[in-house]
Amino acid sequence: MNQFASFRRAKRLTGPEKSAILFLCLGEERGSALMQQLETGEISKITRAISAMGEVQAEIVEEVMREFGQKFSGYGGITGSVETARGLLKGFLPEDRVEEILKEIEGSNTGDLWKDLSLLDEKMLADHLRKEHNQTVAVILSKITPDAVAKVLPLLGEERSVDLVERMVGMEELPSDAIRAIEDSLRHDVLAKAGHDAEAEAEKQLVKVFNKIDGKLFDSLSRGLEEKIPEKLRSIKQKMFVFDDLVKIQASALAKVMREVTGNNLPLALRGAEKDVREHFLNSMPARSRDMLVDEMKAMGPVKSRDVKAAQSEMVEVALKMAEAGEIELPDNDDEDMID
């Protein structure tokens, strides 16, 4: 029991959480005036922390205030909530912008801690659980969904998994304060981090989407996004890896990719490729294999553009999976102009 009771005392607050406590202590009027001096990204981080904070014990408030060089021992506890965050933001932001920020934050979790944990990426959750005592991990696994447990357990290793399952089977009901301590730790150390990573995850998802959509559609979207979010679009483009980028990888790596492509996807992908791209593929092959591939492409006759795109996407997926597994190395895809 002492192990669980120490969680709250030992918990380290993040920078945004400490700032959130300060703003809550200042109140809406003074907090709003101070928040006007911050950048949008900082406002979002602090607002997220305020919205998820809940009740903060007086001793934690005092500890934070000492760090800021002030004494607030008589201030008592404070409570952070979505409504508190809304009141602070309304002091200096338009109503529509306030609702936009809060909608973004509220949309990142369901309000149910164990459901939110169950929806997390299993690698992220496993990374946190590896640092915890097995009894704590067993408690967490007993409360998240079976699907989530099935994904996380193998990532913790066979030997540890056996011990965890044994503890789950023999688990007794824990005191409510122990459960609250675990919940507080998870809410601040896991879900808060997941919220901070949300933008990066969304960008990663868009990279995958843009890799798959038709080139004309991507060009059309790019023109609109270039006006609204030029920096984010640039970041996404730098992370994209499309079919034509395959000509940038080493010949040996390209040969490995071509060997892994299934069915007639290789001739189909090259049949609809630009001439210089197609020639690069063909020139990287042995003469006999090249001649056979050319014959296959000729025998195909006219092909549908959507079939070509699907075949090219499959080749890109193969390359990305091989790179992730360390089997090949992909080039940096930076759009920076080179100056001699």
Summary keywords:
mainly alpha; flat; Annexin V, domain 1; 340 residues; disordered C terminus
Give the class from helix and strand content and strand pairing.
mainly alpha
Q: Report low-confidence residues grouped into runs of 5 or more.
A: 1-10, 70-76, 334-340
How would you write the strand order of the largest sheet? 1-2
Q: What is the residue-averaged pLDDT?
A: 76
Largest sheet: 2 strands, antiparallel
- Give the termini distance in whole angstroms: 66 Å
Can you give the helix content as a percent range?
A: over 70%
How many domains is the backbone divided into?
4
The shape is: flat
β-strand amount: under 5%
Query: What is the C-alpha radius of gyration, as a whole number of Å?
Result: 27 Å
The count of helical stretches stands at 20
Give the helices and strands as they follow along the chain: HHHEHEHHHHHHHHHHHHHHHH
Please report the total strand number as a whole number.
2
Task: Explain briefly what this protein structure is.
It is a peripheral membrane protein. The chain has 340 residues and is an all-alpha fold.
